[in-house]
Amino acid sequence: MSEQHLRLVSSTPALALDQTHQRLGRHLVGNGIITQQQLVKALHLQLRLKAPIGEIIVAEGWASKRDILEMLSLQFGVQLADLEETPPTKELCDVMPAEFWLEHRVVPWMRLGPILLIATSRPDHFHLSKSTLQTAGVIALPVLADEEQIVAALAAQYKKSLAAAAEERVDRVYSCRTWQSETRIPAIVASICLAAATYLIPTLVLTALFLVAVATLLLFSTLKLISFVVYLQSKFRASSQPDTGLSSKGIGFRLPKVSVMVPLYKEREIASALITRLGRLTYPKALLDVVLVLEEKDHITNETVARTELPSWIRVIRVPEHTGLTTKPRAMNYALDFCKGDIIGVWDAEDAPMPDQIQHVVERFNNAPDDVVCLQGILDYYNPRSSWRARCFTIEYSSWFRVILPGIARMKLVVPLGGTTLFFKRKVLEELGGWDAHNVTEDADLGVRLCRAGYRTELIDTVTFEEANFRTWPWVKQRSRWLKGFMVTYLVHMRSPSKLWADLGARRFFGLQAFFLGTLGQFLLAPVLWSFWLILFGLPHPVQAALPASFMTFSVGVFVATELLALAVGIAAVTSSKRHFLVGWVPSMVFYFPLGVLAAYKALYELVSDPFFWDKTQHGQAVEEVTDPI
């Protein structure tokens, strides 16, 4: 391309933001693209939206992206560049590291003698990258390009290095990626020793397991009871102290851009339903950046999405293959660099968030203390009537997300995050290295790392509906992945108990022990706990001869109290969610959890044999869908 075909801007700084917007608006009105009334409305919207005027106009449907680019070209006197027709070269991109281009959303396009032409979609921000380039001895001038072309060009140039980095973003001290076959030998040896001891001294081993089972049951039940009490106290305070609205901190602030990642893998049925559900969101579309994260070699999902018409605020990021690892956290780590928002959220493929969810998240972040960097929404199910298991799953989720987890958060303990309806302050998420790409419950692990770094998670009163896994074997596979991830997370963070204690403090340290040991112990030692029924029915128990009668009575009391507590929490939870038809099903939960034992031992086996294996949950199987506000 010759120099005469380029209209290059001078080196003077860009105009002030409000002047730039007025000039762009005049170009749009003068060329008949929008009306004066539409411009006035767009400027009014911009008073509360942290977005360029052009993006607001496109989001309102008054102009196309191409219209805005052409008018920006006129406004700034900058040449339009087609990066698909003439893509950047590796030689040009090597002038600066990938992090620089990604941060500024620019890419080197062409060289004219000593001048490097930099493609940008925001010429009003070009001076920010230009100053750094000048410091590096680069003479740079802007050309204008579509932002999606810039992102695609960066992905094409750096996909190998970014894919490699996505697997190692988290500090190796807090990652399970260092686990090799030889590091799992102690677990294998311990299992063999336990089996041998059980054969040689069964009574002693059974007694020891019995004591551990009672201890873990008591540990988790104590955490559950305290959380329940805190929940009841908060409900009482909420009823006696009505909401007074936003604090003064929330008055007049401009809404930020929010990126929400939706990882999809081998999803054939869910795409069209997902777009419909997300289309109900009421947050301004100019500030909404929904990113569908697909594996590059996942032909099923890629073909499905290709057949689906996406609105302008939903885009696709394809994650290139690297070592064969195809986990959700790896995909999100890769996509994080391409997100536009100051707030980063996560939804799952089958999610149906409440329409005003993003608004609630933004308002809470704006009003929350600075150390609150993560918000966890309430998860619920839209198909509780699909089967008995779906009813029980709904009761379990209601108990956890409406009663127990809010109590844990209010006590400022470690909050083991759920895998969806999570929202983070972007800077902190990047500071922590995102997610551990090898951990199959990356959410729980991130919750621990947030707390270790001195940050807090809050529960927010907004609901996302999911699909309850109501079929038997898929339920076992999903639960085994969760439990395996809990095992991995606990072992990683307990590599150095003294360091964990120093990071968390005594109260949070014991809270973490209560959650992880209690959860895992209840499933792995469930057969031992079930033996309590022998005593309740007046039958002899194998360990009665080895333990005092008073301790056996105490143990039975703990067991009965735990069951009663579970009933109380379950009833309170489903009542809170206004699903009163589930109250009668709460007692049947005693028959629901035994299947978790199979999942726990499957998880234990995979912990040794294949710790990074992600047992995929298939979505789109439920027929019924209920998403009324609750």
Description:
- Keywords: Glycosyltransferase, Membrane, Transferase, Transmembrane, Transmembrane helix.
- The chain crosses the membrane at residues 185-202, 208-232, 514-539, 551-574, 581-601.
- It is a multi-pass membrane protein.
- The chain is α/β, with parallel strands linked by helices.
- It folds into 2 domains: 3-166, GMP Synthetase, Chain A, domain 3; 215-532 and 593-609, Alpha-Beta Complex (Spore Coat Polysaccharide Biosynthesis Protein SpsA, Chain A).
- It is 51% helix and 11% strand.
- It is built from 24 helices and 11 strands.
- The protein has helices spanning 17-30, 36-46, 53-59, 65-76, 90-93, 98-104, 126-135, 147-166, 185-200, 202-240, 271-278, 299-306, 328-336, 357-367, 388-410, 426-431, 442-452, 472-493, 497-504, 506-524, 526-530, 532-536, 549-576, 594-609; strands spanning 106-112, 115-120, 139-144, 258-264, 288-295, 314-319, 343-346, 352-353, 372-381, 422-425, 456-466.
- An 8-stranded mixed sheet has the order 6-5-4-7-10-9-11-8, sandwiched between helices. A 3-stranded mixed sheet has the order 1-2-3.
- Strand 2 (115-120), helix 7 and strand 3 form a beta-alpha-beta unit.
- Helix 10 (202-240) packs across helix 15, helix 17 (442-452) runs parallel beside helix 18 (472-493) and helix 18 packs antiparallel against helix 20 (506-524).
- The longest helix is centred in the middle third of the chain and has 39 residues, at 202-240.
- It is elongated.
- Residues 1-21 and 244-248 have low confidence and may be disordered.
